[in-house]
Design a protein that fits this description.
The protein has about 280 residues and is an alpha/beta fold. It contains twelve helices and nine strands. The chain binds ligand C2E and calcium ion (3 copies). It comes from Geopseudomonas guangdongensis.
Length: about 280
């Protein structure tokens, strides 16, 4: 039994070492990624719940390493966050997505379409965030109302008082705010009210079994009631089936995003998708 314990210990130690070695090599590789042009954005369409109108796009980061291949954001975003690399990378994401959106507006995309960009906690804690956003808007010429910043519910509730102050200054710039992964954290309703976000994003975990699970239907209904009573729009993420879409429509959800409409796409493929969708 003693030997078994030692073996287990050794096994877990080896696993931990392998894991931290991978994290470290990812961190070193990520340091080069920006300069080596290995990062790209994909864009996923957001539609009105009836699927008729394009209301926006969400920018999602992609990393293609020359040897390791495509690495999932679920794996490298935490590395970027813990190493501080999320600040330069996040600034690049913001610039690139804003410039892309401005180009699309000039190509005739309706002026009320929005570009959503994900922000990390480290970016919210950075004193330079508001200046960065203001500079990017100025440099790209993108109207502030066309930029939507997404912060997750857990980031929003991490240090609510501080975050609310940053959010207030961002709102003064005229950008829109969305609370991401809503329903997975623990929101204080009084704080939620103070955020004055424009949109709640219903986490895909509540959407997955929506057609069968009456608990999930109740949760989504409650989130929609909350959103609408606070004058926010609600968008459902991870919508993959017609059944989910019609259930959401029945419940009164405003917008939807998911593989049913399109996967996140490179800019040119996104443009082709929009043309085909309108046709
Ligand atoms: P998120 O912000 O919640 O993004 C939604 C995720 O769901 C994306 O995964 C998207 O590709 C995926 N998705 C979209 N539609 C469907 C669907 O119908 N079914 C399923 N199963 N999944 C769907 P992705 O692109 O792998 O990104 C994962 C997470 O990484 C994001 O979750 C976000 O938290 C983070 N992330 C991605 N890009 C950025 C970024 O530029 N900055 C920051 N800070 N985080 C980012
Ligand atoms: Ca998001
Ligand atoms: Ca989300
Ligand atoms: Ca998520």
């Amino acid at each position: 039994a003693k030997q078994e314990g030692r073996d287990r210990h050794r096994f877990f130690t080896a696993e931990l070492q392998a894991q931290s070695a991978r994290m470290l090599s990812l961190e070193n590789a990520l340091r080069q990624a920006l300069h080596n042009d290995e990062l790209h954005l994909h864009y996923q369409p957001q539609l009105s719940i009836d699927g008729r109108r394009l209301v926006g796009a969400e920018a999602l980061l992609r990393w293609n390493h020359p040897q390791m291949g495509a690495i999932s954001p679920a794996e490298f975003i935490p590395v970027a966050e813990s190493s501080g690399l999320i600040l330069p990378i996040g600034a690049w994401v913001l610039r690139t997505a804003a410039a892309q959106m401005q180009a699309w507006l000039q190509q005739g995309m309706p002026a009320d379409t929005t570009m959503a960009v994900n922000l990390s906690l480290a970016q919210f804690n950075d004193a330079g965030l508001c200046d960065l956003v203001a500079t990017v808007l100025k440099e790209t010429g993108l109207p502030a109302a066309c930029l939507e910043l997404e912060l997750t519910e857990s980031v929003a509730m991490h240090k609510p008082a501080e975050v609310i102050e940053v959010v207030r200054r961002l709102r003064e710039l005229g950008v829109r705010l969305a609370i991401d992964d809503f329903g997975t954290g623990y929101s204080s309703l009084s704080y939620l009210k103070q955020f004055e976000a424009h949109k709640l994003k219903i986490d895909q975990s509540f959407v997955r079994n929506l057609s069968q699970d009456s608990d999930d239907q109740s949760i989504v209904q409650a989130i929609l009631g909350l959103a609408h009573s606070l004058d926010m729009l609600a968008i459902a993420e991870g919508v993959e089936t017609r059944e989910q879409q019609s259930e959401l429509q029945l419940l009164g959800c405003d917008e939807a995003q998911g593989y049913l409409f399109s996967r996140p796409l490179p800019a040119e493929a996104f443009e082709a998708w929009v043309r085909a969708w309108q046709a």
